[in-house]
Amino acid sequence: MSRNDAAPGTVTAPPGRTRRMLSHLYVQCLIAVLLGAAVGGLWPSVGADLKPLGDGFIALVKMFIAPIIFCTVVHGIASMGNARAVGRVSLKALIYFEVLTTVAMVIGLVVVNVVKPGSGLHIDLSTLSTKGLPPEATTAHEGFAEFLLAIIPATLVSALTGNEILPVLLVSVLFGFGLHASGEAGLGIARGIEKVSTVLFTLIRWIMRLAPIGAFGSMAFTIGNYGLGTLRHLGLLVGSFWLTALFFVLVVLGTVMRLNGLRLLPFLRYIKEELLIVLGTSSTEPVLPRMMAKLQHAGASKPVVGITLPAGYSFNLDGTAIYLTMGSVFLAQALGIDLSLTQQLTMLAVMLLTSKGAAGVTGSGFIALAATLSAVPHVPVAALALIFGIDRFMSEARALTSLVGNGVATLAVARWEGELDEHRAKAVLRGEIPYAPAPAPPAVPAEPGPKETPAPTRDPVPAAS
User: Fold this and answer.
1) Domain limits, the chain
2) Is the dihedral of CA 37, 39, 42, 44 positive or negative?
3) What's the mean pLDDT in 360-370?
4) What is the pTM of this model?
C-alpha cells in the first residue's frame, strides 16, 4: 500500500493543522504546565531545581511593567479632554473595587463558616513556630499612615525602578496631569511617550514567547518541592477555596458582565493564553502588558485601561480577598478559637486595608494574610505555619480570580464611562476580530494593508488650545 493510500475509515489530521495548533501560545503553555507537573511528580529533585526558569521569566516581564504603566497612564491622561474625566474614571474604579472586594470577602467568610475545613484539627499552638516563615510574614504589620507614605517614592525615578505599582501610578498620574496642563509643549512629549509605549509592547510580545518555559519551570518546582501528597493534608481547605473562587468568577463576575451587555465565557476564551500563563507562573504580573493590549483591542479606551487595570492590581485582588477570610477563619478553627461574628467582621474591616497594595506576584496573598493577623489579636501569627506549605496550591486560584476580576472591572468601568465600543467588544469576544491574526497563506499575495481590522482610535491627543 502506498503512503497516499489510507485504510477505510481512517481519519488523519492534516500536518498543517497540527502545526498551527501548536503555534498558539495557550497550547504551548498548557503542554508546558502538564510536562512540568509530570517532571515534578516523577523527579522531585529535578523539578525543584527548575525554579529559576519560572523566576527568570517573571523577572524579564517585571522589568517592563513600570515603564509600560507609566507610558500608558501618562498618555491616557494627556489624551483626555479634561482633568475631570480622569477623576471620574478613578472614582468609579475605586467604588467598583471596594464593592467587589467586599463581596468576595463576604462569600469567603460564609463558605468557611459553613464548610468548617479547620474544625477537628485541634492544633496545639505551642507546637508551631514562625522560624520557617518568610521574614515578611512576621513583620507585615503596617498602619494606614505607613501604607499611604509608602506610595510616595523617594525620587521621581525610583518609582520606575522599584517593584511597587502604587508609586508608579502616583508618578504617572502627576506627570500626565502636568503634560495635560502644558499645552503645546506637553503635546509633543505625549506623542513621544506613545511611540515608546509601542516599542515596549513589541519587546513584551517577544518575551511572551518564552512563557511556556516559565510555566514549565514554575509548575515543576511546585510539584517537585511540595509534592502531590501535600494537597491531601489540608485538601478540604484547598478544594473549598478553589470552588469558592470558581463560584465568584462564574456567578458574581458573570453577573457583572451580563449587566454590562457582555458574556463571561467568551471573555474567558479571549484571555485563555493569559489564564494559562498565570496558572503556570502563579502570578498576574507577567500578563499585565498583554491584558492592557487585549482590553484596548476589545474596544475599551486607552485612558480607561491605563488607569483601571494597573490600579486593580493593587486595589481589586478578588482572589486574595476570598483567601484572606477563608485562611484566617480556617486557622482559628484549627486552633480551636471560636470567633464571634463581631470579631470576624472586625477582621474583614482590617482586610479591606491589608488586601490593598498586595501586588499580583506569587506569595503576596500570604503576606497580606500575615498583615491581617498582625493587625488583629484574634489569631496568632504563628498559626501561619499551618498553611505555609500548601499556600502555593492556592496561589494559582488567587491569581486567576484576580486576573479575571480586573479584566471584568476594566470593561465595566469603560462602559459606565461611555468609553467602551460595545459593538466591537461583542465582535472581539465572538472571535470575529481576532487579537492575533492567523498567518496568511502564501499562495496569493495579499493587497497591501493591515491584516486585521484595527481598533478605532478612541484617544487622540487633543491639540493645545
Assistant:
1) 26-63+96-146+211-429
2) negative
3) 64
4) 0.66
